[in-house]
Amino acid sequence: MEDRWIEVADRVLVRRYAELDLSVGLVMGDGGCLVIDTRGDERQGAELAAEVRRITRDPWTVVITHSHFDHSFGTRPFLECPVWAQEGCRADLVEDGARTKEAWARRYREQGQPGIADDIEKTEIVLPDHLVADRAELTVGGRGVVMTYFGRGHSSNDLVVHVPDAGVVFAGDLVENGAPPAYGDAYPLEWPAAVDGLLGLAGDGAVTVVPGHGDPVDREFVVAQRAEIASVAELCREVAAGRMSVQDAVRLSPYPEDTTRTALRRAAG
Prior knowledge:
- Helices cover 39% and strands 24% of the residues.
- By secondary structure, the chain is of the alpha/beta class.
- Helix 3 (87-110) runs antiparallel to helix 4 and helix 6 (219-240) crosses helix 8 (257-268).
C-alpha cells in the first residue's frame, strides 16, 4: 500500500500509511483545518505536515485520538498550534511516554529497522495543551467538530472526533480494520460501551467511520466488530468467574489466540 489521501466526504480526508496500516485525518474549512493524529515520531510528523501543506496553507489545529505513540509522537512539527486530547492522554504521556519511546525503539531495532528506532529515540514528546474531560466542541474554518470521550476501551483515553456536517466519525483505535483489535493497553470489559457511544453518533443513517488503522468503514462494520468485542468481554467475565477455562475461551473467541489471551490478562488486572 502506498501512502495516499482518501477523500471520504466534502473536504474531509484520510491519509493512509503503509507503516502500521495507520490512518490519520484532515478536516478543512474556510480559513482553518484540523489534523487528527500525527503519526509515530518527529520525522513522520514532518512528512505528514508537508503533505497537509500541499493541500492547504490554512492554520491548523491538532487533535490526538489517544496517547499511543503511533498516533501522538509526531506532533512537534505542527507547533505552534492548539493540541487537543482527552485528559488521560496527557497524563499517560507524562507517566509512560519515556518508557514507551524506549520500548518501541527497542522493538524496531530488533525487527531490523534501526532508522525508525533512531527517529523514535530522537523524538520530543509534545503534551496536549487543550484537554477534554467528556465532550468539547471546536469550530474549524466555520465547520463544527465534536470531540467525545465515551469511557475506557482500547486505551484509557480514546477520544472520538465527529464531523457532523460530513457524516464522518474518526474512531481512533476503538475500531480496527484489517487486523484484530489491540488489547495491549485495553479495558476489555468496558470497550463495548465505548463503541456504543460511537455508534450513537452514527445514528441509523449513512456514516463513514475512520479507524485508527485500516481503510474507512461503514456503520455495519462497526456494529459487527462491536459484537465481537462484546463476545470477548463476556469470555473474560466467564473465565474470571471460574465458569470457563482459558483454553475454552481461546477456542470460542472470534479473535486469534494471542489477542484473546492478552484480553484475558487485561481483564484480570
